[in-house]
């Protein structure tokens, strides 16, 4: 199974509720799921999203 990854950063000015809404929107409309969240010492949220890569198989 292959995955496509996307890294997103959110400033500390964004509240948890705002970040949640933005991530839910990406999940619902783009097929992304949460892989990892890291909160740095300065309060920045670094988020890694992933989604499956579906390869089409040719039929003869």
Give the number of domains: 1
Instruction: Characterize the biggest β-sheet.
Output: 3 strands, antiparallel
Structural class: alpha+beta
Strand residues, percent: 35-45%
What's the number of helices? 1
The end-to-end span amounts to 23 Å
How are strands sequenced across the largest beta sheet? Answer: 1-3-2
* Rg from alpha-carbon coordinates: 15 Å
Total E-strand runs: 3
Question: What is the helix fraction of residues, given as a range?
Answer: 25-40%
Order of helices and strands: EHEE
Shape: elongated
* Mean pLDDT rating: 94
Quaternary structure annotation: single chain
Q: Which stretches are poorly predicted, pLDDT < 50 over at least 5 residues?
A: none
Which key terms come to mind for this protein?
60 residues, alpha+beta, DUF5703
Could you explain how this protein is built, in words?
InterPro entries: DUF5703. By secondary structure, the protein is of the alpha+beta class. It has one helix spanning 16-30; strands spanning 2-10, 33-39, 45-53. It has one domain (2-53). Helices cover 25% and strands 42% of the residues. Strands 1-3-2 form a three-stranded antiparallel β-sheet, covered by helices on one side. The model has no long low-confidence stretch (mean pLDDT 94).
């Amino acid at each position: 199974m292959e995955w496509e990854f996307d890294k997103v950063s959110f400033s500390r000015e964004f509240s948890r509720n705002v970040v949640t809404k933005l991530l839910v929107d990406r999940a619902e409309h783009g097929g992304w799921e949460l892989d990892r969240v890291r909160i740095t010492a300065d309060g920045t949220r670094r988020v890694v999203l992933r989604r499956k890569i579906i390869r089409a198989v040719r039929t003869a």
